[in-house]
Amino acid sequence: MSNVFSESGVEQLYLYRVPEGPLQRQHIQSRRVNLEDSPPLCLQPYYFSVDPYMRTRMQPDGYSYIERWHVGSSLSGWGLARVTASRLPGWGPGDWALGHLPMQDAIDHDGAGLIRVSGESDIPLAGLHPLGMTGFTAWLGMCRIGCPQMTDTVLVGAAAGAVGSLAAQWARRAGARVIVTAGREDKRAWLRAIGFESVLDHRAEDYAKQLQSAAPEGVSLNFESLGGRFFEIANTAMRVGGRVVLCGLVSQYQEALPRRAPRNMASLAAKRVSVLPFVAPEHDAEWGDFQRAIRPPLESNEFSWRLDVVDGGLDAIPGALMGLLSGDNLGKRVVRCH
Ligand SMILES: NC(=O)c1ccc[n+]([C@@H]2O[C@H](COP(=O)([O-])OP(=O)(O)OC[C@H]3O[C@@H](n4cnc5c(N)ncnc54)[C@H](OP(=O)(O)O)[C@@H]3O)[C@@H](O)[C@H]2O)c1
């Protein structure tokens, strides 16, 4: 990494160039920045989450619900950090905090928006995934937006990834028939190992045929995360009166603009399929309900989850994000920084 502004301060990641097409290492650089003197809180980051939406923040059109990154913007992400010094009542050295944090090797913070997590002697890793933003997204999208019933046939794409794996388990818990997909054999083996029987390869040429044989009666609820060709194939399989939970379109995030929309959207209208988009940050008020809902299946080990940990600290974040956007993660991808 280059572009060191000064020899003092801490290392911070920032957007050096806006990618046009696939993200490359050179698009993200590091620089040194000075921390505030004696801030309310000093944090030592232990893990940063890397997530597909980060690539979307680099697009010229961006997402409207989250601020776009421009050339020179510092990068930030969901992170787990430990308090090293505090002037804030209620926070003390050794406490664990989750929050949207600047990607730096040490952080000055005013405490706003931080969530306390308990860890005792262990690092509270569940906050990075099942108890954190990806867990919230899966629960919200499946249980509050999709609302699967026992009569549903539910399709969950990228189901060996963070959101998909938990969304699929919520649908199974509701008694629905669940079809899951993943683009690599070790991912599909994991899905079978955690009890899914109908496990398809969405990257295979014959994916449409696989889906047709797995759901001859059609799909009634599609939890859509992939977009592009995969979304089109799912649309073809929808039952009359079905619903699509529009969670994401990850296959399109690296495409040059304009991205490809499914060409067969008209078939959804013909089949009276409801398309239900959502963005998790707009549902903050439901965070407490989520925390109460997720505890029983997590604590009884009914739900399985895994982290995909990349070592190497801040320097490893660009490569970890590039890999995520081509599918090399199994489980929730995080970067260890300590
Ligand atoms: N609506 C919301 O508020 C919200 C919040 C969080 C996440 N999301 C969305 O949820 C989806 C999953 O996010 P996540 O954090 O859980 O990531 P993830 O599923 O852990 O990782 C992304 C997965 O997507 C698949 N993928 C990546 N690039 C692809 C490509 N070019 N073509 C086809 N498949 C590709 C890969 O799975 P395979 O190897 O199996 O293909 C990869 O493992 C994304 O669409 C994301 O934008 C939405």
Question: What are its keywords?
Answer:
338 residues, 25% helix, disordered N terminus, 9 helices, six-stranded parallel sheet, 15 strands, seven-stranded mixed sheet, Rossmann fold, globular, alpha/beta, Quinone Oxidoreductase, Chain A, domain 1
Draw up the topology in text.
Blueprint: E1 10-15, E2 28-33, E3 41-49, H1 53-56, E4 76-86, E5 96-102, E6 107-109, E7 115-117, H2 133-146, E8 153-156, H3 162-173, E9 177-181, H4 185-193, E10 198-200, H5 207-214, E11 219-224, H6 228-237, E12 238-246, H7 265-270, E13 274-277, H8 287-299, E14 307-310, H9 317-324, E15 332-336
Parallel strand pairs: 8-9, 8-11, 9-10, 11-12, 12-13, 14-15
Antiparallel strand pairs: 1-2, 3-4, 3-6, 3-15, 4-5, 5-7
Helix pairs in contact: 2-3, 2-8, 5-6
Query: Helicity level, as a percent range?
Result: 10-25%
Mean pLDDT across residues: 94
Let me know the CATH homologous superfamily of the largest domain: Medium-chain alcohol dehydrogenases, catalytic domain
Q: Which architecture of the largest domain per CATH?
A: Alpha-Beta Complex
